[in-house]
Amino acid sequence: MTHILLEGYNLSEPWLFDTLRAYIKPHHKVAVIPFAFRDSRVRCAEDWDLLYGKENGKYYGGITAGFLSYGISEDNITFVQYYRDTPESAKEIIRKADIVYFPGGLPDRMMERIREFALEEVLLQHTGIIMGYSAGAVLQLAEYHLSPDEDYPTFGYYRGLPYLRDFYLEVHYTGSEEQKESIRRVLSERKKTVYATQCMEGAILVDNGKVKLLGNVHIFEAKNKDRG
């Protein structure tokens, strides 16, 4: 299985494209699972369309353009629609996909909606590519942390999808004191490596367990690192 942990949906950037084109192929079918939206912004199907709808969705063009640059047809990119799909139709979209893609937003709310749709099993059975940016990156970790920001005022650990267990991830890294303190805490408490992807400049590729860093990624190693 291949995991791609991104900062944004800028898949056409040369520092990403040159590596990822060996994985993302023109014949691939993509299932986009935009479940990380804020409750304050999306309360109905019409609100959802304003973010992800094909006609005028704020993020639709950016998400699809990334895959179009790899030769994937727009017809092969399907968005799971929270207000219109059922758990069964969502599972069918995922089963048919070569790539499962999680956009950004609130990762804990995305996990709650994944559980609401009972999608964990079908997602864990997927054998192709799992990828996503920001929230969609950290969600691929069995446990992830979030540094304090405008959405999460305090540090916390959260449960993600149990794909990756060997490291932690600090997304949108700028070297702020809040981020540095969070990284120090994770190193002390979890004793595992923390990768910090520079804001919009770094990504991580995990190919069958082998980690490859793309672009600008900072590595923080724990003392007495847990190798279990």
Reading the helices and strands in chain order gives EHEHHEHEHHEHEEEHEE
Low-confidence stretches: none
Name the overall outline. globular
Tell me which oligomeric state these chains represent.
single chain
Describe the structure.
The chain is α/β, with parallel strands linked by helices. The protein is built from eight helices and ten strands. Strand 9 and strand 10 form a beta hairpin.
Features:
8 helices, 228 residues, alpha/beta, two-stranded antiparallel sheet, 8-stranded mixed sheet, globular
Protein topology:
Layout (H helix, E strand, L loop, with lengths): L1 E5 L7 H7 L9 E3 L12 H8 L7 H9 L8 E3 L7 H10 L2 E4 L4 H10 L3 H6 L3 E5 L1 H4 L4 E4 L9 E4 L7 E7 L3 H14 L2 E15 L2 E11 L8
Parallel strand pairs: 1-5, 2-3, 2-4, 4-5, 8-9
Antiparallel strand pairs: 1-9, 6-7, 9-10
Please provide a brief summary of the model.
With 228 residues, the protein is an alpha/beta fold. Helix content is 30%, strand content 27%.
